[in-house]
Amino acid sequence: MSIIAWLVVGLIAGWIGSMIVNRNGEGVVMDIVLGVVGALVGGFIFQAIGHSGVTGINLYSIGVAVIGSIIVLLVYHAVVRRRTY
């Protein structure tokens, strides 16, 4: 995929993941970063279980990226909360 496609999928997936995990966005830049990392994580997980990963800008890829971004957000919040105490 092109860099623009990764950014678009990352923004959409990061925003949806943020809405699911903590009910508000993390900010545009953080949503993109978490979404792109989530797309990589989701693609890796889906390929490990025998499905295709992120393939472009389509609903399946966004779904894979959202699942990955939820996982990344849960880990991110667990790490950030531990540091603040």
What is the count of helical runs? Answer: 3
The helix-and-strand class reads mainly alpha
Radius of gyration: 12 Å
SSE pattern? HHH
- Estimate the helix proportion, in percent: over 70%
pLDDT below 50 for ≥5 consecutive residues: which ranges?
none
Query: Roughly how many Å apart are the termini?
Result: 40 Å
Report the oligomer.
single chain
Based on CA inertia axes, which overall geometry fits? globular
Average pLDDT, all residues:
81
The total count of strands amounts to 0
Can you tell me about this structure?
The chain is an all-alpha fold and 85 residues long. The chain is 79% helix and 0% strand. It has three helices and no strands. Helix 1 (3-22) crosses helix 3 (59-84). The longest helix is centred in the C-terminal third of the chain and has 26 residues, at 59-84. It is globular and about 35 Å long. The model has no long low-confidence stretch (mean pLDDT 81).
Descriptors:
85 residues; mainly alpha; 79% helix; 0% strand
Offer a concise description of the structure:
The protein is mostly helical and 85 residues long. 79% of the residues lie in helices and 0% in strands.
